[in-house]
Amino acid sequence: MSVTASASQSGPEAADRRPSFDALRALVADDMAKVNETIIREMHSPVALIPQLAGHIVASGGKRLRPMLTLAAAGLVGYEGSRHIDLAACVEFIHTATLLHDDVVDESNLRRGKDTANAVWGNQASVLVGDFLFSRAFQLMVADGSLKVLKILSDASAVIAEGEVHQLVTTNDIETTEAAYLQVIESKTAVLFAAASQIGAVVAERPESEERALESFGRNLGVAFQLVDDVLDYSAQQEALGKTVGDDFREGKMTLPVILAYAAGDAEERAFWSRVIGDMEQDEGDLAFAQALMAKHGTLAKSLNRARDYAEAAHRDLDLFAPTAHRRAMEEVIDFCVDRAY
Amino acid sequence: MSVTASASQSGPEAADRRPSFDALRALVADDMAKVNETIIREMHSPVALIPQLAGHIVASGGKRLRPMLTLAAAGLVGYEGSRHIDLAACVEFIHTATLLHDDVVDESNLRRGKDTANAVWGNQASVLVGDFLFSRAFQLMVADGSLKVLKILSDASAVIAEGEVHQLVTTNDIETTEAAYLQVIESKTAVLFAAASQIGAVVAERPESEERALESFGRNLGVAFQLVDDVLDYSAQQEALGKTVGDDFREGKMTLPVILAYAAGDAEERAFWSRVIGDMEQDEGDLAFAQALMAKHGTLAKSLNRARDYAEAAHRDLDLFAPTAHRRAMEEVIDFCVDRAY
């Protein structure tokens, strides 16, 4: 039941020493303080609403996982300069812009009532401040002056947008395939993890092989991370902990637990999925019934198995690097991303 | 009554030979055909909704004014390469992304019912396809490889977003000053005109003075263009021609005709403006009454005078350049931008 071979002592059964972000957070703490300074400085604008709204989301207690990957990768390859600081802030700005744009409420979809930026300031402000942060990220990259970094992050941004649109068109499409789903999460999530990690090797001017390994590490970690996120959204344990579940269900998103349950279901079950996801006709008790069907077919466990495959691939990607404290901390982050599902 | 000295024969009184885009359009026709090829090629994506939605807005019969400025400026300075083609497409993509994001309907503002992309495909798709086009613009710039161009257009993008947010916070703010309004339109409109024009000199590696002159030309033209746009939105002539007027009024936007009418109004008139713009309590007949107040105080004419000042400054910016066919065509575009108000 251990998550991976290299993390056997920190597997889910070792409840007193579960994998966490703590080691990596400690290793990059000084750098992250500088990243936060850059973030605060660069989200400034004479238009006061911009730092207000951006501050709401930037300061909302996110894990800063993506910029942390840039800092971690730079540390892993022994980078001694300072370019990774501003570029890590770029990565966070792109992520934040994506979050702001993700939370825009559709005209036809005014049901969600979370305390997102758009709920407080409206759709338009969220969109425009997202645009500002996105532009500011490119300004920072231009100031850094590397066309290679600009290529990595503009390519990533285009793929992210493609992935988000792809997700939009698979939403409520009960026939969405597992391949399409994997393509969506690779585009919308994993590509930024990959770019964030790769940049650490780029600023250090490390060999192409290290760049590729870090890019692959980020990509595999990102897919694992998103798979686990999608499982957690149906998790009974999360529910027991008082966390919100069912967001994806209520939005009719086609995530792997649903795709696998639909594929394994009989005619009656498929009719259920078509009604609640395809037609968005959801009644009380439907989420619980969806969870029961997932339990019946073991689709959360199967989805987690898939996540573990990607986590193991991420581990292999790190084999190229010397077994430093940075590498161990990054390995623990891989394990954490999967372990949090238990 | 002529628009500018240098355009006396094409002033509004010469009804048989009014200034138009035609001369410039003809001069850059071959280049523009290539720009359109780039646009079609670069908005492609395996996610079919992206070219569908982007095509809707890209093909919606816009004047392609901004990319035309890049082509015109390149022609003006005698550029003989081909970099201006893709960069003109970048400018159009950034503009299109802005349009898509502009049209996102606010949660609190579901009244507008125009046939915009967001009305057809929803807010989320409009936002995400805008993000895609924006990212694609940066990919094209990276492929071009000029950090200078990247700086010009990332700076412009950040200022545009700032201007859009600034406009948002002045909307319904009846105390908005003329200075704040000019800052908004310079940021949201003129900066992209300026960048588009400047790039023509940058690709041709012309002296700094020509770059600055073209940047200033674009900026002045952009302010004049937006001032006239804002006048047209209250124009009785436009109404007589069957065009929609009152969009800004219905959205509570603080444009110069309103700002000047509020400043010149007595207590009763100010109460009217506070109700219809500040509180957005609009009844039938209010738009007509607003137009009557503008006529009474001559605020459309005053706004047009301001536009003419900027147009004249744009003319002066072109004095630096040899009196070629390109320069004459660009001068006619300046005159057209103001003349269309008559």
Automatic annotation (TrEMBL), chains A, B:
GO molecular function terms listed in the Swiss-Prot or TrEMBL record: all-trans-octaprenyl-diphosphate synthase activity; metal ion binding
Name of the protein in question: Octaprenyl diphosphate synthase
Cofactor dependence: Mg(2+)
Lineage: Bacteria, Pseudomonadati, Pseudomonadota, Alphaproteobacteria, Rhodospirillales
Organism of origin: Thalassobaculum litoreum DSM 18839
Catalytic activity reported: 5 isopentenyl diphosphate + (2E,6E)-farnesyl diphosphate = all-trans-octaprenyl diphosphate + 5 diphosphate
GO biological process, one term: isoprenoid biosynthetic process
Alphabetically ordered keywords of this record: Magnesium, Metal-binding, Transferase
Family named by the database record: Belongs to the FPP/GGPP synthase family.
EC number(s) on file: 2.5.1.90
Function of the protein: Supplies octaprenyl diphosphate, the precursor for the side chain of the isoprenoid quinones ubiquinone and menaquinone.
